[in-house]
Amino acid sequence: MVGNVMIDSLLHFLPIAQQSRIGEDLGLKNGAGWGHFGVLTLHRPSNVDSTEKLSQLLGAIDAVAAEMPVIFPVHPRTQQRLTQGGIQHHPQLRLIPPVGYLDFLCLLSKAKLVLTDSGGIQEETTENTERPITISQGTNLLVGTDPGKIVAAARDTLAGKGKAGRIPPLWDGHTAKRIVDILLKEVPRGHAS
């Protein structure tokens, strides 16, 4: 095991992301809102291609958003499904256009709660995850797509009953260096082609 290069990137860019003005732009940094909001992402075909399923998921998120602001940078695929299904009006959610990596990283770092179906973010609110280490060692919960479970887990987290976790071993920002060190040791010189 060498670690996770995505974490290398995150640790490198996080200090830069903290300079983002996204909080001010969304009116979150004015007062108690900064740090007391959620972030939602939905884009997987299994969650957005069915108008009924997407509507159920957003209904659950509406219940969470009634208790705290939930920022929803809407993926173009999801926006298309919302419009086609006539379900784009969710007054409790703050639907915004997609944001850049640094702005998004800033939002994630300040959010009290992240709800996602993205393998690269949480890593998953689908029925399974390709990143089990974030469940076994991190703070992530695999809730699935049942609206009742989504609301219950979000409320538990907001009430301070969220899962305690720790940073997995080797998620220290030095993964790329370990990979290079292994390659330099294992690949004979002149045979790297």
Short description:
By secondary structure, the protein is an alpha/beta fold.
What are its keywords?
Rossmann fold; four-stranded parallel sheet; about 190 residues; about 45% helix; alpha/beta
Radius of gyration: 19 Å
Poorly predicted spans: 122-128
- The CATH topology is Rossmann fold
- Element order: H for helix, E for strand: HHEHHEHEHEHHH
Strand content: 5-15%
- What is the terminal separation in angstroms? 24 Å
Layout of SSEs?
Blueprint: H1 5-17, H2 22-25, E1 38-41, H3 45-48, H4 51-65, E2 70-73, H5 76-85, E3 93-96, H6 101-110, E4 113-116, H7 133-136, H8 147-158, H9 175-186
Parallel strand pairs: 1-2, 1-4, 2-3
Describe the overall structure.
Helices cover 44% and strands 8% of the residues. With 193 residues, it is of the alpha/beta class. It has a single domain (17-170), classed as Rossmann fold (3-Layer(aba) Sandwich), CATH 3.40.50. It has a four-stranded parallel sheet. Strand 2 (70-73), helix 5 (76-85) and strand 3 (93-96) form a beta-alpha-beta unit. Helix 1 crosses helix 6 and helix 4 packs parallel to helix 8 (147-158). The protein is globular and about 60 Å long. The two termini are 24 Å apart.
